[in-house]
Fold each of these.
Amino acid sequence: MDEQKIPFWRDDRVLKIVGQVIVLAVILVIGAIIVNNVSVNLRRLGLPPGFGFLNSPAGFSIGDTAIPYSSTDTFGRALLVGIVNTLRVALLGIVLATLLGIVVGIARLSNNWLVRQLALVYVEIFRNTPLLLQLFLIYQAGFLKLPSIENPLRLPAATYLSNKGMHILWPASSLRTTIALILIVASIILGLILWQRRLKVMELQGGSVGRNYQIAVIALAVIGVLALLFGLEWEAPQFTGNSVDGGLYLSSEFGALLFGLVFYTAAFIAEVVRAGIQSVSKGQWEASQALGLQSGLTMRLVVFPQALRVMIPPLTSEYLNLAKNSSLAAGIAFPDFFQVAFTINNQTGRVLQVLLLIMIVYLTINLIISLIMNGLNQRVQIKER
């Protein structure tokens, strides 16, 4: 006997699809109404709804630029300068905050009472005070109180420090430096690929074949180190009597923002690291000690790799917060993307377009960070067979 066919208006599968289509249609209609109203209102105000204003001359200067820029360049070029400034603060801040956070997090579990208490004081101070207040303090009481540019502090490694910023030793723009950098980057990439290949080969064919890959990785490491030591052509800053020329210049605003973000975020990362380490069972420590491993090797080879599985998800949140907190640069007049965008808004009156660009840029940066961290999280998870 044939089964009786269920009418489509009583079929749950059909009803779920129809419901989703209706919700999607309602959202699209509401979105179309909002876009139409915004477009009509902008035209009434004499403001075209497009982004053609980005091709107009900016007419303002930017004090700290990592790429060439002048006041005659377009608004689009000014936004690009802001994006580059935001990216260099965010990327460098993530690296430095991670390193400092790991050190402080491990110090929180130290057997030395003084080290443990100093780490605790650092975490409690920086984690429980506003970041903007810390930025003001670092900028006003730190960088601006340094000697003037006419009498800068001379630090080791040809470094000059003044209230205008820092001039440090930096690779010169030359063919030799370019070739050396290509060798260093290629060595790192090929080394990582071969190391991953070595691990897979050792699982399938044993350690004898894996040693061949290990020798290749060591050779690439030697090439990279030699290129770093002897291939790069360095440009040292020179003091000319009333100014410092040459090398890499980092402004006081950039330094204050970077230090503030690093110290603040590292306090949170330290607690993430401490929690991750404490999540590893005590038996792992005891087994490592029974095998004769020193505490440093136990941490590096046994405990920390297991703690990463717990640490990476909250670390992702801290990295995202650091990228978004970089918008506080406006408080100390560093021209990041947020400040440059609002300067353009003040000159053009294109509020909606500028806000939309700000949302898109920060959303893109955070999605890229999330994508990278999610990929790393999948790699460190236990592979079940």
Note: The mean pLDDT is 86.
Amino acid sequence: MSKLDGVELTKLYYSIGEVAALFNVNTSLIRFWEKEFTVIQPKKNKKGNRLFTVKDIENFNKIYQLVKAEGYTLDGAKKALRSKESAIETPGNLSNEQVILRLESIRARLLELKGKE
């Protein structure tokens, strides 16, 4: 179960204290994971205070789930995040074979629909 289940993130930016309270952890853990995981990249204001976006919080939640809930080591969590990112299929990282298979399946479906007229 995700720590963010039932929590509605409505603000544009969240302070480090607010993020720590969401996950019931110390702010030092947030700073540590920010250094360890490149997916967490908060903005900093002129005073140097961290401002976390909803995307940062979602990434922190993924890390929290891997490390705290599933028992991954930090290195294991980093590898899992990298493999999940590479597993996401976007048009830019599909192989030619995958594109051809998708197009053939679309063509077959269109011909099937045309035959029903």
Note: The domain at 14-88 is CATH 1.10.1660.10 (Multidrug-efflux Transporter Regulator; Chain: A; Domain 2).
Amino acid sequence: MVLHTALKIQEEGQRAASAEISSIKFFAANVLQRVIDRAVQVHGALGVTDDTLLSYYYREERGARIYDGPDEVHKASLARKILKKY
């Protein structure tokens, strides 16, 4: 998904790939959150202590989902871009 978008940006410009960029902003962050959550589950209580990097990753990932705006804002923006065509 990211490579496809990067190629589109390179060939057609950032404005042409704005819908793809919006979808990556929430999709990739959601995938990262699921992966980290599974890793914490596998490690059990150790996963939420500072003995592993998982607790750090979990805190940082959660914050990263709102640094550039909440997922709902990106989803609404993407929906407007798609529906504008119709």
Note: The domain at 22-84 is CATH 1.20.140.10 (Butyryl-CoA Dehydrogenase, subunit A; domain 3).
Amino acid sequence: MEVRIRLQKAGKKANKANNYRIVALPRHGGRDGRTLDILGFYDPAKKPAVFSVNKERINAWVAKGARMTETVRSLLKKAK
């Protein structure tokens, strides 16, 4: 089973206050499908944007063969 580390949409749809979870998902699962692990969150609506991640869990998933999306990779690069 191929696993992706990606963003999962959360928050209220009505006022467009979207925030995102950083999650590990099976590759063929949908964007809002069942998650294997919640690794952090990202809220771009706040000024400055709030970003929190468990780097140990991400490294553990990458060691198991999970791949990060480009968006998650760029967020992690900015966080370092």
Note: Strands lie at 3-12, 17-26, 37-43, 50-53, 67-68.
